[in-house]
Amino acid sequence: MKTRNRILALGVAACLMGGSLTSCDYLDIVPEQSVPEDSVDYTDIENMYAPVSGAYASIRTNNMHWVINLQTIIRDGDVWSGRIDDQGDLLNINKFMYGTFWGIREMWNQYYGMIKITNGAIESLEAYAANITNESDMKLNRQYQGEVRIIRALAYYRLAQMFGAVTILRTNEQADMRRSTRDAVLRYVLEDLQYAIDNCPKVRPNEMAHMGAFTAYTAEALAAKANLILGNYPEVEKLTNDIISSQKFELYPDFYQLFKIPGKLCNESLMECQSTYFGMGSGDAVTVDAFFACAGPGLTNAELNRSFGGWNFAGYTDSFQNWVASRNETIRKETSFLLAGSTTREGDVVSMPGNTENTGCWNGKWYVPINQVIEGREQYGGDNNVRLIRYAEVLLMNAEALVRQGKSGDAPFNQVRKRAAMPELTGVTVDQILDERRMELCCEWGVRYEDLLRTGKADILEGWSADKAYFPVPADHQNDYPEIKEEPID
Amino acid sequence: MKRLLLLFALVVMTSAFAAQALTVKGTVVDDANEPLPGVSIKVLNTTHGAITDIDGAFVINNVEPNATLQVSYIGYTTIDVPVNGRDEINITLKEDVAKLDEVVVIGYGTAQAKDLTAPIAVIKGEELSNIPTTSPMAAIQGKVPGVTILNSGTPGAGPKVRIRGTGSFGSAEPLYVVDGMFYDNIDFLNNDDIQDMSILKDASAAAIYGVKAANGVVIITTKKGRHNEAAHISYNGYVGVQTVTKRLKMANAHEYATMLQEANPTAYNPIIENAINTFGGNFNNLTFGADTDWYGELLRDAVMTNHSLNIAGGSERATYSLGLSYLYQDGIMNTDNNYNRLNFRAQIDYDATSWLKVGFSGVFSQSKQQLPNNKAWEVAFNAPQFFPVYDDRRGDDVFPVKYASPDQFGVTNNLYNPVATANYYNSRNNTNQYLTNFYAQFNLLPDKLNFKTSFGKDYSTVKGRTFTEPYYVGVNQQATNSSLSKTVTTYDNWSWDNVLTYKDKFGKHGVGAMVGYSMRQDSYSMLNGSVSEVPTGKEEYWYIVNGNKETATSSDGGSRYRSQSVFTRLNYDYAGKYLVMFTFRADGTSKYQEKWGYFPSIGGAWVITSEDFMENQKAFDYMKLRASWGKLGNDNVAASDGFASVATGLGTSGVFGNVTYPGFQNTTYYSWLKWEVVTETNVGLQFTTLGNRLDVDIDWFNRTTNNAVISPLLPFENRTLAGNYGTIENMGADIQATWSDRVGEFKYYVTANGSILRNRVKSLGGKSIIKGGETANIVGEKMNSFYGYKVVGIYQNQAQIDASPIAKAYGLQPGDLIYEDVNNDGQLNGEDQMALGSYIPDFTYGISLGFSYKNFDFSLSTLGTVGSKLYNRKRALHYQSAYYNFDHAQFADRWHGEGTSNTNPSSAALMSSYTTQNTNSYYVESADYFRFQNIALGYTFKNIKMGNYKLPSLRMSLNADRPFSFFKAHSFTPELSDAQGWDTEVYPLASTFTFGLQIDF
């Protein structure tokens, strides 16, 4: 009896252990939640735009980091960092003392983030291409690759603009981090853009099926900007002429509203970074985050009982304000300057900063009136788009290219003057064009500093010297990749 | 069936047989002749026995005249007493200073302390029950050398626990095993639920838990009843008040304004004038109408109370234990924040037959945690004192409460009203946790071979809810719409363990063997929904369906891991003199691509005092030398999918007009991780000397973590990619010495413990430094070291500035910090940065003492750390805004003219980015502290007559937890919630003073 029970028990034990040990596939389970990359169905051509859309997102998430924006515009003598109580290193950057500001590394990394995303998107598009069987899909694939290349070109263009010589990452796995010269980087930019010019539709962005997507003209405009830095004026003329002669673009008549919600994706727009609240007062928001707010004052509208907070960075210097006043600017002055204590057309009261010692004038181009932001959204700038390249810049580049080659640039030049209600000029000179660019494009992507640099006039800036023309390669990267300190490859 | 009937008959007829056998009576006393209640007396080889009552008396029926009684009691040497036909036996037990006879819970079994080859610390439930903490682990602070506890002040928040240093860049929390189930923490248990806690410190003990054991193992046994014990009902409770241990003194309005004026009068006078114009005061002598002590507004004294009721007992065949406890802790932040927890516990063991034992244990724990907004501590540090909490003059746009705002003196950025920050916050977690364990044990050969199969299930849900009401304080401190977010998190884990245990003795050879097989599955799932525009008012309205549906969003997530393990332990001893133990565990896990890991360990001990040649010496009563080696795994490492995944969602989608096109970004990097492996060697010596009065226990250890997971940055990215790149070494020694003695009725003890630790990063897979967000890991330095410039002085005058190329490059002024230019190249760069210390201490120590005299008992314990550094992030945050306030010491110690200070910068320097944006040693402070950890005084009434009823015992006590702390850091506490030692948003620790009552019914 006793023995039998023990045998029984032992048997049970043996069965339990034996039985469970045999289930050896017990550990082979698929991880929860993660979707493998190879599960992307590259035969499903319908979804071929997904990686392109992902690349567009990187403009918003990477290029629009507020600290990049500030570092881009504060070196031209016209814009002051705006605050003495916060981000004090920006005050030093105003005087070309770069130090070890965190924003330098942030800027570098954000653009390489964009480059890796676009490199990945091109790989994905090539994977789709391998499954395409008809020519119309193939054409679409090339168009999409063109769009992604414009985004990649934008990242490299911006890197060259800010850092001069930088590393070209031809693949995401590249181990050699040696830099290429600024001109070599710009040539790489032009290669990408040529592909886009050849393969993207010749329409306005607001005519695209994907509203606001980049076109062959976007590529031509960016290529013109790159050629302008390289001093390749005939090429600038050719590219800008192609845009102008298409007669698809026009200056938006209302300069004030051009930068606000009504001017989103207007016919002047060649490149825009888009945002949306989906027309809703709450819920999902896909915006440029603090891009506008970082350079905004506080706004209060008593009638609407609403107020926005801004971070108060980036103010126009007194000297620039005086220069604008001396030109008798009207519409561009009102649009560009947001004065502390003033009340805007829309009844928004601009807050006074804690002290007005250095500036009380913010960038009005990033101001969106409270009544243009759907109720419930209290972010300064709302869901406005960021204008990256406008037709006005194309006209001014065209004018400069013509004048530099001994031709008249009056026609394109005066189109811009006319919209700004400024008297037309005849026989315009390069200097007049540079002044016009300084006014028309103030606070737009560092155009002014670049103009000073390429025309050899940067030495008028306090603290500037040739060795400080560009931001230094971030110190961490110099430590981690010693080859980055080597002479750049041309 | 026949057997059962027979057994039943045996039980019923016990009295009938009594005539043939003896009824043995007696008392058990200690060596001072004091009666010992609760002593277990077992008739060997039977199930009979008894437990002594309050007077130490016992009665056992039906004892064979030639039987032997085994008498055991915690803390006393177990003895065997032959009955020899006596019917009255009085027994004296000797105190066991070295606790050699103590039964210690080890993994998948128990052992007697004298048979251990590994250092295992045992904490008894009684040591925890009166310490006012929400988590049992918090109560063991300072009690065990080599176990470091970092407490948090947040109500209901559990402590951080480190056993023998930090051996992982990721989670270094130990594994908790509660009645066989694995846990990440034991915050759901009441201190009074615990019978005992075993802390397995070295690899040879912990290796039986394999891939989860690298950070040490804490085994918890919940309370159990004892055979042959009458129902023992007890109440244990305390009520008390908590008050902040130390208040950080801030600069007042006048001092703050003085600092601003010294820094830059033109820049900052407008703010000072605005404040005076708005809130009153006088600009000429810098007096202010408002001078709000923000920490004074944010702190309060708060209540804490705990009540628990336990019933335990047992018959010959069954034991049981039931418990109920309730704990409430109010937060010392002056807003709605608190924690309460209700626990039910039950445990039953039943000897169904002579060969089958079955049992169940269960804990149900229900808690509610109303969370504080710890951001308010930081905001209060930053806010100048010259504005009031409330301002009734403000317009109706300020609602629902008329808080004052920094907007009123013209600062809209970075400054907030701290009281509003604390109050406009409503977040809570409701947790329900069920822990159950069923087992059946088959005694195949009585006392020699048994098989135990047990199934454990742990199910818990955490319901989180965060609600924000609409409010307006200032342009940057407002919420236009209400918002509601709800998260339900569920953990559903089970385990099935099968263990075959054999032990036997052949002459002087003792052998033991254990073989086991275990399966488990851990699942986690999370579902979150949030919405805006929910009606405010009653919380009953706060449902997602009541919000604006267009704004509703949801997300979810989950994971499931399985494991399968085989393990064994073999031990052999010769005459109790030489002991050898070998363990091995093979762990298979679905978490990693490399599925199986193998974890062996071996340990040996030599009881020197058992040798013949030691027989005639008197110096040592007991001496044991032990050594062990083993390997452990740490699977607290993120699982790797083993494939690249694509990122999707709104963040990776482009906007085209007013719509997005669903986009993806392919991340071509992916991690391929495996668990971390710790190899540990331990050598220990334990001896008792001076007539069993001094017990000393010393262990030396070296634990090296290989394959430590660390995440270097990807090239040119802010993203990191984890890899098994690191090697970390923790080497040190744990020492504990206890002296205990008695003089008449005066019993006392003094214990000193110390733990030395040398923590070093040995390698980083080829790199010499990997920087993280807060600290850096550098080969040859302590883990998580602060990394930056070393301050070697203050620029005192213009001549010094003119002579320094660095000062010129950065535009410095007298009063600025001088950073050491290590390579003397006249520039500040990476080569000038160095490790500036780490939060990991070099030495921790504690001294505790206690005595009992007649009905009084007293205990006192202290705790200290040496060699730990913290980073005063509160001060460093000045980079965010020059308008931030200063602490009082920054004002009092500042440089304000040549010769005034060579260590503390001027006010202008405190605001400059050269100071605030470069990590430097000015912000690194000593985190060393010395603290009176606990002082308790008790008085026990015994045998109180209440009519016909005699209440056995009632103890009243006064307990002061953390009454005094001493430290230099400019902090509320050097015990930080941040594991890397950043002092920011830290909820201050409280001193708790309680009155306690323990009643045995």
Structure notes:
- The complex is a heterodimer of chains A (490) and B (1001).
- Chain A is mainly α and 490 residues long.
- Among the domains of chain A are: 40-200 and 456-485, Serine Threonine Protein Phosphatase 5, Tetratricopeptide repeat (Alpha Horseshoe), CATH 1.25.40; 293-372, no CATH class.
- Chain A contains 17 helices and eleven strands.
- Chain A is globular and about 75 Å long.
- The model of chain A has no long low-confidence stretch (mean pLDDT 91).
- In chain B, helix 6 (253-263) runs antiparallel to helix 7 (265-279).
- Chain B has 1001 residues and is mainly beta.
- Chain B is globular, with a radius of gyration of 32 Å.
- Among the domains of chain B are: 18-93, Immunoglobulin-like (Sandwich); 103-225, Beta Complex (Ferric Hydroxamate Uptake Protein, Chain A, domain 1); 790-832 and 869-926, no CATH class.
- Chain B is built from 16 helices and 54 strands.
- The chains are: A mainly alpha (490), B mainly beta (1001).
Topology of helices and strands:
The complex is a heterodimer of chains A (490) and B (1001).
Chain A: H1 2-21, H2 50-63, H3 66-73, E1 79-80, H4 89-94, H5 102-129, H6 135-163, E2 166-167, E3 179-180, H7 182-199, H8 216-230, H9 233-245, H10 255-258, E4 269-273, E5 299-301, E6 306-308, E7 315-316, H11 318-326, H12 331-336, E8 337-339, E9 349-350, E10 361-363, E11 386-390, H13 391-404, H14 410-419, H15 430-440, H16 447-454, H17 475-480
Antiparallel strand pairs in A: 1-7, 2-3, 4-11, 5-6, 5-9, 8-10
Helix pairs in contact in A: 2-5, 2-6, 5-6, 6-7, 6-8, 7-8, 8-9, 9-13, 13-14, 13-15
Chain B: H1 2-12, H2 14-18, E1 22-30, E2 40-43, E3 49-51, E4 57-63, E5 68-72, E6 79-82, E7 91-93, E8 103-106, E9 109-112, E10 120-124, H3 125-129, H4 136-139, E11 147-150, E12 160-163, E13 175-178, E14 181-183, E15 194-200, H5 203-206, E16 217-222, E17 229-244, H6 253-263, H7 265-279, E18 281-282, E19 287-288, H8 294-298, E20 302-314, E21 318-330, E22 338-351, E23 356-371, H9 375-382, H10 418-423, E24 426-445, E25 449-468, E26 471-474, E27 477-479, E28 483-506, E29 509-532, E30 553-574, E31 578-589, E32 596-607, E33 620-634, E34 646-648, E35 654-656, E36 659-661, E37 664-666, E38 676-689, E39 694-710, E40 723-743, E41 746-764, E42 769-771, E43 776-778, E44 785-788, E45 791-794, H11 798-803, H12 805-809, E46 817-819, E47 834-838, E48 843-853, E49 856-866, E50 869-871, H13 873-876, H14 888-892, H15 907-911, H16 913-916, E51 924-926, E52 929-946, E53 949-967, E54 990-1000
Parallel strand pairs in B: 1-7, 13-16
Antiparallel strand pairs in B: 1-4, 2-3, 2-5, 5-6, 8-9, 10-15, 11-12, 13-14, 15-16, 17-20, 17-54, 18-19, 20-21, 21-22, 22-23, 23-24, 24-25, 25-28, 26-27, 28-29, 29-30, 30-31, 31-32, 32-33, 33-38, 34-37, 35-36, 38-39, 39-40, 40-41, 41-48, 42-43, 44-47, 45-46, 48-49, 49-52, 50-51, 52-53, 53-54
